[in-house]
Automatic annotation (TrEMBL):
Native organism: Streptomyces avermitilis
Annotated spans, Disordered: 335-457
Matches recorded under PANTHER family: CHELATASE-RELATED, MG-PROTOPORPHYRIN IX CHELATASE
Compositional bias segments (type: Gly residues): 351-368
Transit peptide is among the record's keywords: no
InterPro entries cross-referenced by the UniProt entry: AAA+_ATPase (IPR003593), BchD/ChlD_VWA (IPR041702), ChlI/MoxR_AAA_lid (IPR041628), Cob_chelat_sub_put (IPR012804), Mg-chelatase_DI-like (IPR052989), Mg_chelatse_chII-like_cat_dom (IPR000523), P-loop_NTPase (IPR027417), VWF_A (IPR002035)
Alphabetic keyword roster: ATP-binding, Nucleotide-binding
Pfam families given in the database record: AAA_lid_2, Mg_chelatase, VWA_2
Taxonomy, superkingdom: Bacteria
Protein name in the entry: Mg-protoporphyrin IX chelatase
CDD domains per the UniProt record, alphabetical: vWA_Magnesium_chelatase (cd01451)
Nucleotide-binding among keywords: yes
SMART domains: AAA (SM00382), VWA (SM00327)
UniProt-recorded Gene Ontology molecular function terms: ATP binding
């Protein structure tokens, strides 16, 4: 087993280390979500935590880590008698993003269950993580069906495995720690709320601190055991402090004043539900125990708010986690009168949580004042949602003169997106086999059963009726004499299921002068933002191609980060000619490359334009020829018609016909549109066929 990097040797990242240590003191806090860019010691710190966790007593030979003093009466390896057990280190179990359901919850041998009536159960990762740490790297990329299983286990403290009427239950209480890079996509809100604390990490911009990071990493890589030995005293000190804090924790007093501050803070920041209040209370109590105090102070409440509330304040996926610290201080001051005098301990004057850091004056003595990565800025840029109007809307539509330098034809300042709305469901026709999601029909491992087939490899979903039907004609020949069914491997049938897949939604947005009227472009951006929200909820990949002037560009290559697409959309400038054909050809090239990378993920092209085309000879005909490339490849498409005014040319509708797709106006795109039309890509493809 390799020697882990010492926890106390991690440079900076104060909030990250504090959040992990608070969960080690009080696992009831609910785990940690670590958000940050790559290469910021997220995984290193989490893996190092396991070496500091106190050892646990378990029943000897129990695969489910039952406590010897109070064994689980429903343990599959039980029943156990109360008595002395054996002591072992707390486990840290890593859940791979691509793990199967059976690997997570365990596997039942259905063949033995049918033929012998025996519950042969092989424990999964949830059983291994019981009373330890379950770590999910890149948790935002975890498949939905695994997220659902994690949510169930976290809510009930137990894992249930059911296969065709055969069920097994075992305890599964663990410290959930996840790391993620927000550039690769966000978490589902349900799972996000299950993490007690969240911290933002970033690489230091201080040269001295970066030098110390490199120095320590190189020293560790050269000789891990010698490097760990140099930090052994610091590790032992933190380990002893965790044990002492755990012993003190039950006697920490959470006074009425602190409770009022917690409740007032959660109410002031309008967090949903009551989980935030409970997590803040547990975190503040753990902070006091970590500092060796028996009373919770206002400083504990403040630090608890900074760790427990930022991720609970998001109102949509494009809101960055954050907390207005001025508002927090005002709230704590307003409701702090009743606990100003609680406790005489002098908190660390260096800032919130300063007393909560592990010792760092180690042998290498590098700089330790890391950036406060967990602290957030004030209101987000998106707080101002005022719409441009009046004079801006009266601007002439630029770019149609054909001269890039003509008045009004140059680049114009980006406008803000209009208010997003709930869109109609757009789906890809047919039956796919792509990654699990929520948009189009697909053959999946989860969903409604539609048939049966012989298993290819390991049997995962038994089709009981088909299996019995296959085995029944052979019972006499197999010498069946008892009540049990004589089942052979060849009789087993795998259930085929139909669910939903995520698609690649490629936006092709016209940013030319014909779209540049500010009110109009604001509405267009609002529509695209609404479609991005829909893509986030349906677990799609997204890409963004824009065209204006004389060229088209890939503003965002296909990615799972819908947030990144929203940022690029917000800063999108407008003006110039309308090279519609160039934009379509660029999008076709993006799909060609993406098909080589992920052939199973089917694309949906959303063209946002008024259908006009300028530049070069016969620009409209050229755009039509480019559009027919998509139709020839069978690519599903939607054209969002942005044409406005009393006189309409209907060019966007013609473009949709060339694409073999569906034309939809901005009004019809709304799910609550009075038109009430059921617009789907499938209907258009039927017409094209």
């Amino acid at each position: 087993m390799s020697t882990p990097f010492p926890f106390t040797a991690v440079v900076g990242q104060d909030d990250l280390r504090l959040a992990l240590l608070l969960n080690a003191v009080s696992p009831a806090v609910g785990g940690v979500l670590v958000r940050g860019e790559k290469g910021t010691a997220k995984s290193t710190a989490v893996r190092a935590l396991s070496a500091l966790m106190p050892e646990v007593d378990v029943v000897a030979g129990c695969r489910f880590s039952c406590a010897p003093g109070s064994p689980d009466p429903a343990c599959p390896d039980g029943p156990h008698e109360v008595g002395p057990g054996v002591r072992r280190p707390a486990r840290m179990v890593e859940l791979p993003v691509g793990a199967s359901e059976d690997r997570l919850v365990g596997a039942l041998d259905i063949e033995r269950a049918l033929a012998e009536g025996v519950k042969a159960f092989e424990p999964g990762l949830l059983a291994d993580a019981h009373r330890g740490i379950l770590y999910v790297d890149e948790v935002n990329l975890l498949h939905d069906h695994l997220v659902d299983l994690l949510l169930d286990a976290a809510a009930m403290g137990a894992s249930y495995v059911e296969r065709e009427g055969v069920s097994v239950r075992h305890a599964a209480r663990f410290l959930l720690v996840g790391t993620m890079n927000p550039e690769e996509g966000e978490l589902r809100p349900q799972l996000l709320d299950r993490f007690g604390l969240t911290v933002e990490v970033a690489a230091s911009r201080e040269p001295d601190q970066r030098v110390e990071v490199v120095r320590r990493r190189l020293a560790y890589d050269d000789d891990p055991e010698a490097f760990a030995a140099r930090w052994a005293d610091e590790e032992s000190a933190v380990r002893a402090r965790i044990v002492a804090a755990r012993e003190l924790l039950p006697s920490v007093r959470l006074g009425d004043g602190a409770l009022r501050q917690i409740a007032a803070t959660c109410a002031a920041f309008e967090v949903d539900g009551m989980r935030a209040d409970i997590v803040m209370a547990r975190t503040a109590t753990a902070l006091a125990a970590w500092d060796g105090r028996s009373d919770v102070l206002a400083e504990d409440v403040r630090q608890a708010a900074l760790l427990a509330l930022p991720h609970r304040r998001r109102r949509n996926p494009f809101d960055a986690p954050g907390l207005d610290e001025n508002k927090l201080d005002e709230t704590l001051e307003e409701f702090g009168g009743q606990n100003e005098d609680e406790g005489d301990d002098d908190p660390d004057p260096d800032g919130p949580g300063g007393g909560g850091q592990p010792p760092e004056n180690g042998p290498e003595g590098g700089p330790q004042d890391g950036p406060q990565d967990g602290s957030q800025e004030g209101p987000q840029d998106g707080a101002d949602s005022s719409e441009p109007g009046g004079d801006e809307a009266a601007r002439p539509q630029a770019g149609e003169s054909g001269q890039p330098g003509a008045s009004g034809a140059g680049e114009q300042q980006a406008v803000r997106a209009g208010e997003p709305f709930r869109t109609k469901v757009l789906s890809v026709p047919g039956l796919g086999e792509g990654a699990a999601g929520r948009r189009s029909r697909a053959r999946t491992e989860h969903g409604r059963t539609t048939g049966a087939r012989r298993p290819r490899g390991t049997l995962t979903k038994l089709h009981l009726a088909a299996t019995v039907q296959a085995a029944a004609p052979h019972q006499r020949a197999r010498g069946r004499s008892g009540r049990g069914l004589v089942v052979r491997r060849d009789d087993l049938r795998q259930a085929t299921r139909e669910g939903r897949e995520g698609n690649l939604v490629l936006f092709v947005v016209d940013a030319s002068g014909s779209m540049a009227a500010r009110q109009r472009m604001s509405a267009v951006k609002g529509a695209v933002l609404s479609l991005l929200l829909d893509a986030y909820q349906r677990r799609d990949k997204v890409g963004l191609v824009t065209f204006r002037g004389s060229a088209a560009e890939v503003a965002l290559p296909p990615t799972s980060s819908v947030d990144a697409a929203a940022v690029r959309l917000e800063s999108l400038p407008t003006g110039g000619r309308t090279p519609l054909a160039t934009g379509l050809l660029k999008a076709h090239d993006v799909l060609r490359v993406e098909r080589l990378r992920d052939a199973a993920r089917r694309p949906l092209v959303v063209v946002v334009t008024d259908g006009r085309a300028t530049g070069g000879p016969e620009p409209v005909a050229l755009a039509g020829r480019a559009a027919r490339l998509f139709a020839a490849d069978g690519v599903a498409s939607v054209v969002v018609d942005c044409e406005s005014g009393p006189v309409r040319l209907g060019l966007a509708g013609q473009l949709a016909g060339e694409l073999g797709g569906t034309p939809v106006t901005l009004d019809e795109l709304r799910a609550d549109s009075i038109a009430g039309l059921v617009r789907d890509v499938q209907s258009s493809n039927r017409r094209a066929a």
